[in-house]
Each structure stands twice: as structure tokens, then as C-alpha cells.
Backbone:
């Protein structure tokens, strides 16, 4: 009888809690918390406590699958790899490498994402690499780079507890990043002020000292309004602005337009509340801003984030512990996937592909050419499927459920000449593939994840993958070999050594150094201890930049035909497209099916009672979901979480894009409601 | 005089070499991470550590449930032992097949924890600390708790239940929609936490695992300590400390009457001198 | 939820002693508080703590368990056990800052019509008093 506990990292959200998997005779039997973990400190959320439950589910993919004609059949690895090689080579030869594209995985390890983009760029010859970060924090990458020079969370999660003011924009933290929420609660207990900006009443707003329930999509105006009050009352940090920033004058001019009364007009927040919040933030000793999807998932996402960065610069609340701008990255390794260059315009470490010196460096190391033309983003790849894009390689992503306008995604993917999907379950996207490759879950391989606070942590292998499933890095090596460029890595450890040699911020990262606490990048060399908070002495770009931005309304407003506003989001017991959580009994029983939140007045007008079915229709499609009648949404608004394929919020959402980051406006669209039989 | 860790390692090696146990549950430090391990070879003992406080009793139960013949060794603090005693009463552990390496908590840990007996009955490592819990420690009955405000912070992680050594029901009532509405956070405060505390009234051994596991910092121990104090005052029962005594909430009033009870003596005709003859049990 | 005029009170009454009292009270047309509901159970020991907790969490202000006299339970010592268990629930309510009087355990008072009426009226009056005092 064999019993062990294996320490590893939770596969769900970007907080990256340390967990212990309980293994009995080669099977996972439970999850326990890791008591000495720097972020989770012996605690876990509902998803973390059940991280093991989906791993041994009978639906796990165990064999490669090939679809020919109308049928899907099991195949051997040799056959599947040959099929992949034929498929991609044919398209490359006929249409050129730019007709191929790949979606990397924010759930796979750093080593795997690195290999993926190396495969797409070096072996297949295209920069068309992207992943779901496009749908969550791509505006963060754009805006934080332009303001500070680095696209990552400036401080660390544990530091949030030391802030005496927390300004949380568009983040339902206690449900979606619970262990980060834990620190926010701790800060508030110590008499800190919690200000929550959210159109809905969520758990965190019920705990807040001040809840600014603004109209959806007006965060920029609110941030500008706060800045106006701070400037007007002379509460800004003159010394900091003088010594460490640039662009203040232009910023000041634009802010003049955002008087409290104008701001109230746009956001709906009363002047008095605005002033109160502004004063608290500006006068705080250590004020931290935390934000998430409520800010980024808009067609004005990048500018929304810029507006928030301006506040931190205005009050000198960055570059010290327990301050800063703290985007909460969603997936367990979305930070890592971005760091590893699974993006169309940058290589690992955000080094630009259109820089000839950078390309030279990588192609020398890889012994493979690196294409110069920046590639297409996720939305462009999907909409170009069948025309510009003929072949697509998807690793660990489920665009049919996570991208806006699901029907168009399905149609687009069906138009592809060749689609390969590599996943652990037969997701909604995988059912459309020509070849499906079975991969190992987080518990069945080694590698590293990077959490939202830039902490690189090691995974440990606890059990073997089922059937013939292989770790994604092993699959990628075999695919590369099939395409004529074998990759000789014995282990993910070796891959990380290569990464470290090419990526300055990861320069000192080695598996052997990632004991216990992991390491927070920048970690330029092997003696560097990692970096808890950024921009201490100077900003990465030198001086912090004020970027003056003006409020832009949504793309799709409610009108007579579609009079309700749909807000999308998540809930605490499921994770994103539900591929893992809906196969976990403890989580699925907590919430078995989808729902829509509707205000009691609206429910009454529609004659809808709690639990009754409602048909929700937008210009893109229609779904049916059961009603939750609740005060958490205002009149004229509804909320639908996007986890449930049978009542998928993304059937309804629209594709208006943020011009800079190409982020679609997932947060808001217009719908109409009818009672369903 | 070796340190406590060294002494424990010596005893652990001896125990393994004696062949009495299938393995020993203890904390190990490996690659900078500290985790509970089931040590089965003497080389593994080299990595043994004693902190942080990690209740190993639930793992002992897991192992005995898996293997009904195995004798399990365990490095046990006072709280571990109390939990094992209660688990044995519930028929979940066989204490005959459990060998304890008794570890007494040192002054600092005892003060921080504040439980009433920071040492097992037989101490193999460490010295016995007798103390009254300091003010401000988690056991201080002290300030009143605003439970409405506190329970509003609950994240419904079920950590308190998952970490508790005595929460062992295969079908937990907390996950039954009839009693606690599912899919909502925070959970209805009365339902979730009241039901949990009520079900643990005569089982809680004041180990503090629930509070340690709570991400929202709820002062759960205060609630349990209140109940434990009432249980001791009114019924003279302390879970985990009285090995041979079953909970008074089990048998009948005439067996273990309230200390200020006015039930007449003639009730004992229902059972000799409160001998505990149960009918229909 | 708007507060009702009278405190909402839920009573679990076993079929035996209080059952008889309730029947007699009905036959004699005795006046009883308007906002109470009575649920009959085979034995008061059937009532488990979750039922009481659910009632309180749903907004019921007081729960009363009426059983037989402590020496006269139809099911031997079942009412003793119920008393011990539910008494601990009262400790819990107190520990959480909720008035423990909201759970009332009544053994054997409700056998006749008038005592039955008296028990209920007294309980309802207590609940009204708690409201006035603004207690949780």
C-alpha cells in the first residue's frame, strides 16, 4: 500500500496556490493545502480543494483520434502524427506558412508554451501564434507597457494585506481569485479601506466600505473623475510626479473635462461618493489598485487600463510595497504563456519579432529561421479561418466556448482545411477537429507555471497520464520531429535552461532553484533572488508615463429591439469553459447548470419566477437559462456566467475589438428576454 | 541533548526498524516544501521536520481505511491524539493499530495555539507545558465577535470542513441543497456555519485546523471553544480527553444527567445505576 | 423581506402529549396567535438541528419543540436525547450572538388544551419582546 503527498501548483487560477495531491497506489485521492506556501499559506478555495477530481474522469482522452468522413476513430500515435505532418505540410506548401496558425495554452506549462511558439515560428514558419490572453489581459499588456515599460503586476499578492486602501476595479475577487481576495479581506480587517468599483453587487462589494456601482463601461470616466478630484483638492504627489513621471501637463488638460458633475452624468456615481473615494485613495499611505475583467474586456480596454495607471502615478502609489497596479491574471499560466512569447508580435520575454537583432539571436540558438512579419491575433485568426488561415493547431484552448459569438467561431473552425486540437478532454472545440491529440493534465507531468505576481513555480508529477496520453511538451517534440525538425529535450528542465539563455527576465530561472517559494521574475541571473515589486527606483521604461485618455462608450447599446444589457463573467465554483470543473463532482454539484441573474422588478414584468426558464437573445444567437432573481444586477441588466455549454453566454456576445490590443468587447452587449416554456 | 527534531528522528528510525509499523506519518521537508509524508524507509526519516503545525490524524485515518491490517505510526501532538481518540470512538480508527511518537508543543507554539493540552498523554519528545492561554491568543474568550460581519466574509471554500479531522460523514449535510443553498457565496451564514458547529459539538477537539484553513480569517475557534466550555460545564464532557467515555449526546439523560439536573433517582429503573444499557442501540 | 406584524413562530409538536393538547385546543376553539405553524412529528426526537437552523435562516423568529413529559415519552428516552441535543443548539445560538430563547424546548406542558394555548402564547409573547429589544 503506497501513500504519498505530492506538492505542486493548483491548475485553476492565476493566484497559483500551493497544493498537495494525495496519491494512493497511483491514483489521486484528494487535495490538501501546502502550509508554508508564500501565497496560499495553508488555505485553498473550493476549486483548489478539488483540484484532483477531474484527473481520473472516464472521459479523459486516452488515444489520438482521427476524423475522416463523418466518423471519429481512435488511431495510433504514428498515424496521428503522420496525419498532422501531412495536413500542415500540404497547406504550407500550397498556401504559404502565413496560412497556418496556432493557439497556445494558458493552462500548459512555460516549457510547453515556449516549445509551441518555437514550433510555429521555427518549424512551420509563421508568427500567427496567440492564445486566450487576448481575451483577458491583452489590454493590460498594451497599457502597462506604455505607462511603466513592463506588462506585469507591479507588486505581490501577499503585499495586498499591507495596503491601507484597496481600490478594486471590475474584479469579483473573492469568487474568481479567492486567495487574493483573502489578502484584501485581511487588509480591510486591519482598518484598511476597501473601495469596490462594479456595476453588480458582488460578494466583495457587499464587504466594501464604498461600493461605486457605475454604469457598465464607464471605468475610464470614473478614473478620470477621481483624478479630477485629487488634482482639484491638491492631493496629488507633486514630488513623485516631478521626479519620476512625464506627460503630466497633457494629462492635466484632459482631466479638466471630467468634473464631478460630468462624471456623474457618465457613470451614475454621485459626486459625494466620488469625492470620498478619491480622498481616501490619495491620502492613503499605501494604496493598491487591483483590477480584472471588468476593466479589460471592453473595446476601450487598453485605455481603461491607462486611466487606472494614471491614478497610481498621480498619487505616487507605485514602486513601493503594498501599492501599485495589480492585474489579476486569470489562468494558472497565462502570465507564463505571455512571457514565453505565445503572442504574434513578440518572442519570449516580450522581445519584438520585427527587431532583426532579436530574430538573429533566436534563430542562431534554434538553428531555425524566425519570420519577420508579426502575425495575426486570436480574433483575426478565427475570423480568417477558411480564407487567410487554412490550418490551425490548438493546444489546450476551447475557443468555441471562450470566444465571443460562438456560432461564428463554430462556422469559422468548420471552414478550416485542417484543425488539430490537443487537449485532456474532448472539448466543444475538439469535436470539430480533424486530429485530436490526448495530453496529460497538470498532475501527470513536470514543468513550471508563472502566476499573476510573476512567481515561477514548479509542478511535480503525481500520477501517470491515462492510456496513451502524453505531456504536451512530449507531443510537441514528436510533432516537430514529424515535420522534420526533431527537438532533443530530455526533460522540461532542459527546456527551461534554453528559455533562460534567451529571455533576460527569466535568466536566473532553473528548476533546481525553484524550491519552495519559486522565483518572481525579473530574475536575470542564477544568483538573483527574484523581485517582489517592480519600479522601485526607476520605471522599466525610465519614467512613468501619463497617458491622457477620453471616455468612449460601448459598441452595442440596448435599444428597442434588444432592451437589456448583458453582463458576462464567472462564478466561484466553476472555471472558465468548465472542461475541468464540470467533471469534478464537488464543483458540479455546487452548481450543476447554467443560469442568468435578473433583477426582481424585471422578473416580475416578464412573469418569471426563480428557477423558471428564460430565453435570452442577441443579434448573434439565442440561449435558454434558468432565472436567478436577485438584487445583484440593476434593472435593465442581466448577468450570465460563461461556464456552461448548454446555456453559453458567448453565443450572445459581440466581437467589437479594442483597436490596439484586439480584445473583443466580451463584457457587455444588448439582449432581449422572453419567458421560455 | 539533541533537538526535538533529532530526538524524533531517532525514535522514528527505531520504530521503522522494529517492523511494528507499515510506515510513520510525519512532516518532511523536501526541495524547500514541507508536506506530510508516510515514511516507510529509514532514509526518508532524514527529511523529517516538526513544523508548521499540521494535523496528521486525518491522514492516519485515510491509511487505516485503505489498509485494514496496517499498523500506522504517527508523530502526534496533543491535538493529533485528541482527534485520534474521537475518531476511535466513532469507529473510524483502531488505536490498537496506531503507534504514537508523542510530541509536546513548545512554549511558543502552545501560547499561539492556546488549546488546553498542548501535549499527548505520553510524551516522547519535548516537555510538558502547563499554561493558561494568553490574552489575544486564538483561545481568548475575550472580545465579542460580530458574527454577522464575520460570516459575510465566508468564501464557501469548505476548507473548515475539509481540514477538520472529525468531519468524516460520507454525505455531508453542508453540501445538501435542502439545508444550505448551493451556488451562492457567501453561503447563508446561519445554515452553513451553524450546521457545521452543531454537528461538531461533541466532537471538536480544539485543534485549530478549521481556523488555519480559512482564507477569510473567520474566528471559528471562538465558536467551538464556547460550545466546548458549555459542554464541559453542563455535561462534564471534553471530547478527545476522556478515552473511555462516549459522548453524552449519545446515551440517555439518566446515564449522564446534567450536573444541575433535577431528574429523580427512580429514573434509574430504566437502567441499572445508569449502567448504560442501551435499548435499540 | 418586510417584517410581519406578529412574530413568525414554528412549532414541532409530537403526536402524543402536545398532539392531544392541540386537538383539544382546536375543539374548544381557543384563541391562538395568528402567525404560527404547527408541524406534527411522531416524536420530538425526530426534529434534528438542521430543521431548526433552516427555520431560523428562512426568517422564522422562533422555533418551539413540544414533546411529552420527560417521564412519559412513548419512545422511552427519546425526548431526553432530543433535549440534550437541542440544548446544545441553544448554546450555539448564544455563542453566535443570537438569543437562545428563540429555540424553546417544552416537555409535557401541552397535554391539555389550556396549557397548550398558554405555551404558545407565552412563546409568541417572548418573541415579540425580543423584537422590541432589537435582539438578533
Residues:
Amino acid at each position: 500500500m503506497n501513500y504519498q503527498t505530492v506538492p505542486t501548483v493548483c491548475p485553476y487560477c492565476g493566484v497559483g496556490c500551493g497544493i498537495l495531491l494525495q496519491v494512493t497506489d497511483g491514483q489521486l485521492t484528494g487535495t490538501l493545502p501546502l502550509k508554508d506556501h508564500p501565497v496560499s499559506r495553508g488555505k485553498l478555495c473550493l476549486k483548489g480543494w478539488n483540484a484532483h477530481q477531474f484527473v481520473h474522469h472516464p472521459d479523459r482522452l486516452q488515444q489520438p483520434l482521427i476524423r475522416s468522413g463523418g466518423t471519429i476513430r481512435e488511431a495510433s500515435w504514428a498515424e496521428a502524427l503522420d496525419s498532422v505532418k501531412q495536413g500542415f505540410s500540404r497547406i504550407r506548401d500550397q498556401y504559404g506558412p502565413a496560412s497556418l496558425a496556432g493557439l497556445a495554452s494558458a493552462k500548459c506549462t512555460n516549457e510547453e508554451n515556449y516549445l509551441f511558439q518555437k514550433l510555429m515560428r521555427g518549424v512551420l514558419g509563421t508568427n500567427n501564434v496567440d492564445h486566450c490572453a487576448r481575451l483577458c489581459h491583452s489590454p493590460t499588456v498594451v497599457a502597462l507597457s506604455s505607462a511603466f515599460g513592463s506588462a506585469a503586476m507591479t507588486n505581490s499578492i501577499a503585499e495586498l494585506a499591507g495596503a491601507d486602501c484597496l481600490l478594486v476595479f471590475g474584479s469579483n475577487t473573492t469568487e474568481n481569485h479567492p486567495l487574493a481576495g483573502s489578502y484584501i479581506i485581511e487588509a480591510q480587517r486591519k482598518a484598511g479601506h476597501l473601495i469596490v468599483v462594479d456595476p453588480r453587487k458582488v460578494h466583495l462589494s457587499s464587504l466594501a466600505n464604498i461600493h461605486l456601482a457605475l454604469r457598465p463601461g464607464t471605468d475610464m470616466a470614473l478614473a478620470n473623475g477621481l483624478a479630477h478630484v485629487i488634482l482639484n483638492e491638491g492631493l496629488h504627489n507633486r514630488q513623485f510626479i516631478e521626479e519620476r513621471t512625464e506627460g503630466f501637463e497633457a494629462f492635466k488638460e484632459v482631466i479638466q473635462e471630467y468634473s464631478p458633475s460630468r462624471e456623474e452624468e457618465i457613470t451614475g456615481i454621485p459626486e459625494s461618493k466620488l469625492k470620498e473615494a478619491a480622498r481616501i485613495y490619495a491620502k492613503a499611505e499605501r494604496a493598491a489598485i487591483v483590477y480584472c475583467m471588468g476593466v479589460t474586456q471592453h473595446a476601450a480596454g487598453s485605455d481603461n487600463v491607462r486611466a487606472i495607471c494614471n491614478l497610481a502615478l498621480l498619487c505616487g502609489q507605485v514602486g513601493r510595497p503594498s501599492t501599485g497596479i495589480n492585474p489579476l491574471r486569470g489562468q494558472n499560466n497565462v502570465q507564463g504563456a505571455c512571457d514565453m512569447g505565445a503572442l504574434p508580435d513578440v518572442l519570449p520575454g516580450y522581445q519584438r519579432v520585427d527587431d532583426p537583432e532579436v530574430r538573429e539571436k533566436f534563430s542562431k540558438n534554434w538553428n531555425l529561421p524566425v519570420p519577420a512579419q508579426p502575425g495575426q491575433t486570436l480574433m483575426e485568426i478565427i475570423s480568417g479561418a477558411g480564407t487567410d488561415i487554412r490550418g490551425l493547431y490548438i493546444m489546450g484552448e476551447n475557443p468555441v466556448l471562450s470566444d465571443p459569438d460562438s456560432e461564428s467561431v463554430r462556422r469559422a473552425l468548420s471552414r478550416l482545411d485542417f484543425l488539430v486540437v490537443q487537449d485532456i478532454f474532448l472539448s466543444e472545440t475538439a469535436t470539430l477537429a480533424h486530429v485530436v491529440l490526448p495530453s496529460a493534465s497538470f498532475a501527470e507531468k513536470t514543468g513550471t507555471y508563472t502566476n499573476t505576481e510573476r512567481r515561477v513555480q514548479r509542478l511535480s508529477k503525481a500520477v501517470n497520464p491515462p492510456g496513451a496520453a502524453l505531456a504536451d511538451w512530449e507531443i510537441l517534440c514528436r510533432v516537430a520531429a514529424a515535420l522534420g525538425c526533431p527537438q532533443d529535450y530530455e526533460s522540461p528542465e532542459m527546456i527551461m535552461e534554453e528559455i533562460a539563455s534567451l529571455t533576460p527576465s527569466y535568466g536566473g530561472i532553473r528548476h533546481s532553484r525553484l524550491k519552495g517559494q519559486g522565483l518572481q521574475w525579473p530574475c536575470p541571473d542564477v544568483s538573483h533572488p527574484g523581485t517582489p515589486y517592480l519600479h522601485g527606483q526607476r520605471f522599466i521604461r525610465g519614467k512613468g508615463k501619463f497617458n491622457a485618455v477620453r471616455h468612449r462608450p460601448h459598441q452595442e447599446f440596448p435599444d428597442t429591439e434588444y432592451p437589456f444589457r448583458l453582463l458576462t463573467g464567472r462564478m466561484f465554483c466553476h472555471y472558465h469553459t468548465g472542461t475541468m470543473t464540470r467533471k469534478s463532482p464537488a464543483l458540479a454539484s455546487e452548481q450543476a447548470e447554467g443560469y442568468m441573474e435578473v433583477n426582481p422588478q424585471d422578473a416580475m414584468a416578464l412573469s418569471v419566477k426563480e428557477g423558471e426558464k428564460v430565453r435570452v437573445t442577441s443579434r448573434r444567437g439565442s440561449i435558454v437559462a434558468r432565472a436567478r432573481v436577485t438584487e445583484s444586477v440593476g434593472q435593465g441588466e442581466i448577468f450570465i456566467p460563461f461556464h456552461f455549454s448548454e446555456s453559453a453566454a458567448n453565443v450572445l456576445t459581440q466581437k467589437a475589438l479594442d483597436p490596439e490590443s484586439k480584445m473583443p468587447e466580451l463584457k457587455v452587449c444588448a439582449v432581449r428576454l422572453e419567458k421560455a416554456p | 541533548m539533541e533537538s526535538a527534531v533529532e530526538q524524533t528522528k531517532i525514535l522514528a528510525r527505531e520504530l521503522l526498524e522494529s517492523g511494528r509499523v507499515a510506515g510513520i506519518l510525519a512532516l518532511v521537508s523536501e526541495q524547500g516544501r514541507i508536506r506530510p509524508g508516510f515514511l516507510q524507509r529509514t532514509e526518508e526519516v532524514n527529511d523529517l521536520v516538526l513544523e508548521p503545525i499540521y494535523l496528521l490524524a486525518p491522514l492516519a485515518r485515510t491509511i487505516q481505511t485503505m489498509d485494514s491490517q496496517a499498523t500506522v505510526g504517527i508523530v502526534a501532538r496533543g491535538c493529533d491524539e485528541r482527534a485520534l481518540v474521537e475518531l476511535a470512538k466513532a469507529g473510524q480508527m483502531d488505536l490498537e493499530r496506531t503507534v504514537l511518537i508523542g510530541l509536546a508543543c513548545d512554549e511558543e507554539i502552545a501560547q499561539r495555539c492556546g488549546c488546553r493540552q498542548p501535549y499527548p498523554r505520553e510524551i516522547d519528545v519535548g516537555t510538558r507545558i502547563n499554561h493558561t492561554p494568553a490574552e489575544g491568543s486564538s483561545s481568548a474568550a475575550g472580545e465579542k465577535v460580530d458574527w454577522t460581519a464575520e460570516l459575510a466574509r465566508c468564501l464557501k471554500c469548505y476548507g473548515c470542513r475539509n481540514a477538520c479531522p472529525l468531519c468524516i460523514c460520507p454525505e455531508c449535510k453542508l453540501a445538501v441543497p435542502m439545508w444550505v443553498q448551493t451556488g451562492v457565496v457567501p453561503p447563508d451564514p446561519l445554515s452553513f456555519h451553524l450546521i457545521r458547529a452543531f454537528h461538531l459539538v461533541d466532537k471538536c477537539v480544539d485543534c485549530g485546523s478549521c481556523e488555519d484553513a480559512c482564507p477569510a480569517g473567520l474566528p471559528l475557534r471562538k465558536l467551538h471553544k464556547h460550545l466546548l466550555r458549555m459542554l464541559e460545564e453542563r455535561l462534564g464532557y471534553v471530547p478527545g480527553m476522556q478515552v473511555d467515555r462516549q459522548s453524552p449526546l449519545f446515551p440517555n439523560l439518566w446515564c449522564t444527567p446534567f450536573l444541575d439536573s433535577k431528574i429523580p433517582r427512580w429514573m434509574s429503573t430504566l437502567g441499572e445505576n445508569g449502567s448504560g444499557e442501551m435499548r435499540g442501540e | 423581506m418586510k417584517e410581519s406584524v406578529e412574530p413568525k413562530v414554528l412549532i414541532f409538536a409530537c403526536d402524543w402529549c402536545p398532539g392531544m393538547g392541540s386537538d383539544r385546543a382546536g375543539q374548544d376553539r381557543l384563541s391562538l396567535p395568528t402567525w404560527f405553524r404547527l408541524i406534527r412529528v411522531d416524536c420530538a426526537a425526530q426534529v434534528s438541528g438542521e430543521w431548526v437552523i433552516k427555520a431560523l435562516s428562512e426568517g422564522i423568529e422562533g422555533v418551539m419543540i413540544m414533546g411529552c413529559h420527560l417521564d412519559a415519552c412513548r419512545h422511552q428516552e427519546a425526548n431526553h436525547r432530543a433535549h440534550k441535543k437541542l440544548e446544545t443548539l441553544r448554546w450555539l445560538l448564544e455563542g453566535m450572538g443570537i438569543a437562545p430563547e428563540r429555540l424553546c424546548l417544552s416537555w409535557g406542558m401541552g397535554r391539555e388544551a389550556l396549557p397548550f394555548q398558554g405555551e404558545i402564547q407565552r412563546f409568541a409573547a417572548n418573541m415579540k419582546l425580543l423584537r422590541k429589544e432589537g435582539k438578533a
Summary: The interface with chain B takes residues 49-50, 53-54, 56-57, 70-71, 76-77, 80-81, 83-85, 87-89, 91-97, 136 of chain C (CB under 8 Å). The longest strand of chain C covers residues 9-14. The CA atoms of residues 99 and 136 of chain C lie 6 Å apart.
